[in-house]
Amino acid sequence: YHFYNAVRMTLNQLLVELDGFEQNEGIVVICATNFPQSLDKALVRPGRLDKTIVVPLPDINGRYEILKMYSSKIILSKDVDLHVLSRRTVGMTGADLKNILNIAAIKCSVEGKKAVDMNAIEHSFDRVVVGLQRKSPLNDEEKNITAYHEGGHTLVNFYTNGSDPLFIFFFYFLKRS
């Protein structure tokens, strides 16, 4: 109940502020959401936040360019292929890609390596995608659920038109957080 009241009060104040702008004040208000369908209708009516720009996730070329930009700040070993990594990172944001490279760079630095290698990138990819490995063993029911879940990912990728068969690199059977 208290949360709902806080949300309503915040929305009402935002609407008051938006209505207070004069046409000639030269103020541009930019908002972002991952849930446009959840926005209150009063917020998106004409004269308020009525323009929509959809920013999709980067495609393979976009991911390659993002990886190239972020990797320009670190030393990569010769075994790192950004084209392969860009194919593997379908559905990831620029922030995800930056995070993968940062985790890999930190891992290599801690290990005293001069360059980020593919092994470190694989490790950081696993951390970003599936989380840290849990130490507790899986019981039989958890093994079955995990197998069905991962098998489902594999089948969907395999039968999706335009999917990259190189996307299926390995099949996890370790419980993750």
Automatic annotation (TrEMBL):
Q: Which organism is it from?
A: Piliocolobus tephrosceles
* The protein, known as: Uncharacterized protein
A GO term from the CC aspect: mitochondrion
One example of a Gene Ontology biological process annotation:
proteolysis
Instruction: Kindly list the cofactors needed.
Output: Zn(2+)
Q: Which family does it belong to?
A: Belongs to the AAA ATPase family. In the N-terminal section; belongs to the AAA ATPase family.
Say yes or no: keyword ATP-binding present.
yes
Regions that span the bilayer: none
Give GO terms: molecular function aspect only. Answer: ATP binding; ATP hydrolysis activity; ATP-dependent peptidase activity; metal ion binding; metalloendopeptidase activity
Please give the superkingdom of this protein's source.
Eukaryota
Q: Report if keyword ATP-binding is assigned.
A: yes
Which segments constitute the ATPase AAA-type core domain? 7-57
Q: Where is the AAA ATPase AAA+ lid domain?
A: 79-122
Looking up SUPFAM superfamilies in the UniProt record yields:
FtsH protease domain-like (SSF140990), P-loop containing nucleoside triphosphate hydrolases (SSF52540)
Which UniProt keyword terms apply here?
Answer: ATP-binding, Hydrolase, Metal-binding, Metalloprotease, Nucleotide-binding, Protease, Zinc
